[in-house]
Design a protein that fits this description.
By secondary structure, the protein is an alpha+beta fold. 20% of the residues lie in helices and 12% in strands. A three-stranded antiparallel beta sheet has the order 2-1-3, with no helix packed on it. Strand 1 and strand 2 form a beta hairpin. Bound molecules: zinc ion.
Length: 60
């Protein structure tokens, strides 16, 4: 699941199953990177902690 087969070129947006674009544009990427990343659910709290560390927000 962390490495889906379908990939897309970041230059011509052509879908491919190869790690590189068939047209030679370079390496492809996954169409939906980190779509189901569970860590992202805590991004809000992570940013709050970062703000607190900078002294902009009063730490709990
Ligand atoms: Zn391409």
């Amino acid at each position: 699941m962390s490495d889906p087969l379908l990939r897309v070129c970041r230059v011509c947006a052509r879908y491919s199953f190869r790690p590189e674009c068939p047209d030679g544009h370079g390496p492809t990427r996954t169409p939906h990177p980190a779509r189901f990343d569970p860590a992202d659910r805590y991004g809000k709290y992570r940013r709050q902690l970062q703000e607190a560390a900078r002294g902009r927000l009063s730490a709990p």
